[in-house]
Structure formats: structure tokens, C-alpha cells
């Protein structure tokens, strides 16, 4: 597999990670498509194992999201800021505390955004609960699955 193909599949995966946080973009499926492209271009057993694992993880996350209550948060500037903080927190948490750090990073990002907006701890915690109930848990589930897939893909690429 050439460097350009690897770079382009990585960009598709990165676009998918950003797409999870943006409304109307099929982020999880873009991540899966990037892994599929990589597996088709680099037909090693490890690549196919990552593709099968990515498929299983995405299907499991889809099943989990179906069981969560379907509520839609309103779309305004506050929601975009919260989403940006939550995504950055999840990514930093995933990098600093491998894999499991994405969950407290996401929640911490939402809390920080609400604390900066509202100014008080109690109000920020109440707003955090509201955000997680109104769709934040669904976004967290999808983002965590995509971060797992990205981590597996990156590990396989670095393994050679």
C-alpha cells in the first residue's frame, strides 16, 4: 500500500471522527469506509481482522444506541460549543488514558463547557445531566466506537 493511499484512508477516518460530532454526517460509516479502503488496498490478515473487528464494533454500538432513549437536542451555538468541548475531551482522554479515557474525557468536556457557560458547579452538573439525557449518551456511544476502531487501525498501521 502506498503512502498516498494510507494518507487518504486516514483522512477519511479522521473525517468520520469529526462527522460523529456534526449533525447530518454519517461519521461511523465514514470511519468504517476508511478501514474498508485500507483493508482492500492492503490485503493482509491483520487488515482483514481489523475490518471484521470494526464491523462488529459498529454493529454493537448501533444496537446500544437503539436501546438508548431517542431525544434530539436543540441546535444552537451552545450545542456546537458543547460538542466541540466534548469531542476534544474524548480525544484527549483516549490518548492520555488509552481507550477508557474517552468516556471521562467526553463527560469532562461537557462539564467544562457548561461550567464556563453557567459559572457554578451545581448548575453545570445539572446541565451535564440534561445534555447526557438529551442525546449525549448516544453521541458518546458512537464516538467511543469510532475511537476504538481508529485506535485499532492506527495500531495495525504502525505494526507494519
Please explain how this structure is put together.
- The protein has 160 residues and is mainly alpha-helical.
- Helices cover 83% and strands 0% of the residues.
- It contains 6 helices and no strands.
- It has helices at 3-21, 27-41, 45-67, 77-96, 102-118, 121-159.
- Helix 1 runs antiparallel to helix 6 and helix 4 runs antiparallel to helix 5.
- The mean pLDDT is 89.
The number of helical segments is 6
N- to C-terminal distance: 11 Å
- The total strand number stands at 0
Order of helices and strands: HHHHHH
Q: Tell me about the biggest sheet?
A: none
What oligomeric state do these chains adopt?
Answer: single chain
Mean pLDDT: 89
Report helical residue fraction: over 70%
Shape: elongated
Radius of gyration: 17 Å
Strand-residue fraction? under 5%
Structural class: mainly alpha
Poorly predicted regions are none
In short:
It is built from six helices and no strands. It has 160 residues and is mainly α.
Question: Which properties best describe this structure?
Answer:
about 160 residues; single chain; mainly alpha
Amino acid at each position: 500500500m502506498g503512502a498516498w493511499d494510507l494518507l487518504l484512508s486516514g483522512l477519511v477516518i479522521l473525517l468520520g471522527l469529526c462527522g460523529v460530532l456534526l449533525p447530518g454526517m454519517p461519521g461511523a460509516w465514514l470511519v468504517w469506509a476508511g478501514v474498508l479502503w485500507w483493508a482492500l488496498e492492503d490485503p493482509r490478515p491483520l487488515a482483514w481482522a481489523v475490518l471484521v473487528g470494526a464491523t462488529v464494533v459498529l454493529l454493537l454500538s448501533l444496537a446500544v444506541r437503539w436501546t438508548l432513549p431517542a431525544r434530539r437536542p436543540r441546535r444552537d451555538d451552545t450545542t456546537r460549543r458543547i460538542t466541540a468541548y466534548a469531542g476534544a475531551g474524548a480525544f484527549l482522554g483516549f490518548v492520555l488514558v488509552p481507550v477508557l479515557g474517552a468516556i471521562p474525557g467526553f463527560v469532562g468536556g461537557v462539564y467544562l463547557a457548561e461550567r464556563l457557560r453557567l459559572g457554578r458547579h451545581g448548575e453545570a452538573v445539572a446541565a451535564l445531566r440534561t445534555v447526557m439525557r438529551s442525546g449525549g449518551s448516544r453521541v458518546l456511544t458512537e464516538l467511543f466506537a469510532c475511537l476504538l476502531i481508529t485506535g485499532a487501525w492506527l495500531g495495525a498501521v504502525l505494526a507494519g
